[in-house]
Design goal:
The protein contains seven helices and no strands. By secondary structure, the chain is an all-alpha fold. Helix 2 runs antiparallel to helix 3, helix 2 packs parallel to helix 4 and helix 4 runs antiparallel to helix 5.
């Protein structure tokens, strides 16, 4: 039998996964394509940041990977290049956020985690794009993609900070 705390963690993690999938689908279906291929706002990363701050790195990774799979299944992109780009970006973003998280909350806030994750997501996607294309040509998109990722990372990071400020501290310190 699970304790109340375990049930709460499971329910909270499931809720954050539902949020990530919903935001990912909304972004993929409703947000018009941006001028540079692969640019996204990264709305689903809001749920990953909330998970990292409240449940820890393992939960954030589970949510990030499950989101890639579920959105890929729903959008029909799971087995194709888009799915691979999404997975590469998600893993790179989580890794960067995990490293910054590991340095301690005094070193970087959730905004810093978001910026690092956003930039790493771009780098991860472009590395996968280079592998898929068999060329370094996708790296030409790096300057524009990184500039956009900084704006997006700030937006998502500050959104996460605002949400976390309104959550009782006993829930934020579950990590």
């Amino acid at each position: 039998m699970r304790s109340r705390a375990e049930v709460f963690r499971l329910a909270f993690e499931s809720s954050l996964l539902a949020l990530a999938v919903t935001l990912g689908l909304v972004e993929s279906l409703l947000v018009p394509p941006l001028p540079v291929p692969g640019l996204r706002l990264g709305l689903a990363n809001l749920a990953v940041l909330l998970a990292l701050a409240s449940l820890g790195p393992a939960s954030a990774l589970r949510i990030s990977l499950a989101r890639v799979i579920l959105v890929g299944l729903a959008a029909g992109t799971l087995g194709g290049p888009t799915g691979l780009l999404s997975a590469g970006g998600a893993v790179a973003a989580w890794f960067a956020m995990w490293l910054l998280f590991g340095l301690g909350r005094d070193a970087f806030s959730v905004v810093g985690w978001s910026l690092g994750g956003s930039a790493a997501h771009v780098v991860g996607q472009l590395i996968v794009a280079c592998l898929l294309a068999g060329s370094f040509a996708p790296l030409l998109l790096m300057p524009v993609s990184l500039a956009f990722s900084l704006v997006s990372g700030l937006m998502i990071g500050y959104s996460a900070r605002l949400l976390l400020a309104r959550v009782p501290s006993r829930y934020v310190s579950l990590a």
